[in-house]
Design brief:
The structure is a homodimer of 243-residue chains. With 243 residues, chain A is mostly helical. The first copy, chain A, is built from ten helices and two strands. A two-stranded antiparallel ribbon of chain A has the order 1-2. The termini of chain A are far apart. The A-B interface holds A 7, 11, 21, 25, 50, 53-54, 57-58, 60-64, 69, 78, 82-83, 85-86, 89-90, 92-93, 97, 100-101, 103-104, 106-108, 110-112, 115, 161-164, 167, 243 and B 7, 11, 21, 25-26, 50, 53-54, 57-58, 60-64, 69, 78, 82-83, 85-86, 89-90, 92-93, 97, 100-101, 103-104, 106-108, 110-112, 115, 161-164, 167. Chain A binds a DNA duplex (30 and 30 nucleotides) through helix 3 and strand 2.
DNA sequence: GGTTGAGGACTTATCTGATATGTGCGATGG
DNA sequence: CCATCGCACATATCAGATAAGTCCTCAACC
């Protein structure tokens, strides 16, 4: 049996996807610029408009194209949407993935903090101050968590490494949502807001002092604490029942 | 201007995507099981088959569905495809992202190595041995690099953290390809294969000894070396011209 | 002159219906 | 018992048509 289970000929949609990728990556087009219309693409590639649409849809899901009704498809600016989608989906599939994700955050954000302490621009430091004080002004848990996520995002951005920044953004937001959903009601949060503020304050201070090692250690402690809280919630969630 | 740029009514495709997500996440379906056929979905959702197809295509691109000609769409097993796509696209857009990615690897793989030293099962250790000896048997640069990537993947898997495993897999493969493409010809690789084998040997030995700190340090040194090589290649590629 | 708003060209969103092709199961026959 | 051939089902792709959003133009208006 030399029978291949793979189709002997690449599907047309797959061909369209490759063609579009070449346009995007090698076509000398910058983010924000427009591709030819679906109709034109269909003609030049010798397929129906429908097939072009499926390809465009795929590239859109990958975060490479921006599609809006009435406008030609545009090259997307690099963004973290595909990552967010991936992490969000992982958490929806199994909330226990929170524990796996926190390990990734631990690795990534500690390193990001080191880099931030070494390379942060003064502008970035200002943003960090702002994010921190926003946390202090939050009065309810909802907005506090939101400000918390923002602090981490700003810190990651201060590392100067966009890839790290994307990953942190993409992980923190779905984690926060997932946490909120599961914690709704019982705010048996191991630590108080003040504890958490202290932890962030230490991080901020060390970054400002350009103390890379201290900043990294402060971030590590913060995330280890968070991990402990998370473990507590995931093991004894008692009466969580379904949603 | 209270004018919303967003369409007042969610597009039908978006509705289909949400509906499918609910089937996938909350429908009590396990990976490998099948969704209703496009036709049935179209009927129950009150849209045309075409619209269903677009939604299915989107979820496929996100790695949540597996679509094959002649068979109903199946729930996909969790996989790293979306991550691979993201990193591959980032590198195609700008090869300088290699330097950003190596930082992520540094953070992630060092942590993964720590976890592996602490938690690796004996089976995982055996796989690691095997991957290491495969590296030693490689005679050309191509297969050596391939075995190298495999070693890192196996090590990440040994951490017991699937999320880390996915990320490492998704980053290492595109990085290798990108590196190969840019190095084609001048194998002015800073280190020899023997150097690299030594670095891996140190990692392996420390993991076997359950020496978490030592293993992490060995991995860190390995990746710092790799980063240096990478920097050398990206800064003095001489005739790259433009920005 | 500058601003506003209607008109029209262009483009995507979605529907309908039809054909081609791959999958899988069960009947058929050795 | 088992290999094989149909047939029902399902996806892949095409064609043509209508609805709806976007953007530029140009004229009317203040």
């Amino acid at each position: 049996m030399d029978n291949e289970k793979a189709p002997r000929t690449e599907s047309r949609t797959a061909g369209v996807v490759r063609h579009l990728e070449e346009l995007i990556f090698g076509g000398g087009l910058e983010p924000g610029q427009f591709l030819p219309s679906e109709g034109e693409l269909a003609t030049t590639m010798g397929v129906s408009r429908l097939t072009v649409r499926e390809g465009v849809r795929t590239l859109q899901a990958r975060g490479l194209l921006e599609v809006r009704h009435g406008r030609r498809p545009a090259i997307a600016h690099p963004n973290a949407d595909p990552l967010s989608g991936f992490f969000a989906a992982s958490l929806r599939r199994d909330p226990r993935n929170l524990l796996e994700l926190i390990e990734v955050r631990l690795a990534l954000e500690v390193h990001a903090t080191t880099l931030a302490a070494q390379h942060a621009t003064s502008t970035a430091l200002t943003s960090l101050d702002l994010a921190f004080s926003t946390m202090g002004q939050a009065d309810d848990e909802e907005s506090f968590n939101q400000a918390d996520v923002r602090f981490h995002a700003v810190l990651a951005a201060a590392s100067g490494n966009q890839m790290i920044s994307f990953l942190v953004e993409a992980m923190d937001e779905p984690m926060r949502q997932s946490r909120l959903r599961s914690l709704r009601g019982h705010l048996a949060r191991g630590r108080t807001m003040d504890d958490i503020m202290d932890e962030h304050a230490r991080i901020l201070a060390a970054v400002r002092d350009r103390d890379a090692r201290g900043a990294a250690e402060a971030m590590r402690e913060h995330l280890v604490q968070t991990r402990m809280d998370l473990r507590a919630f995931l093991t004894l969630p008692t009466s969580d029942a379904d949603d």
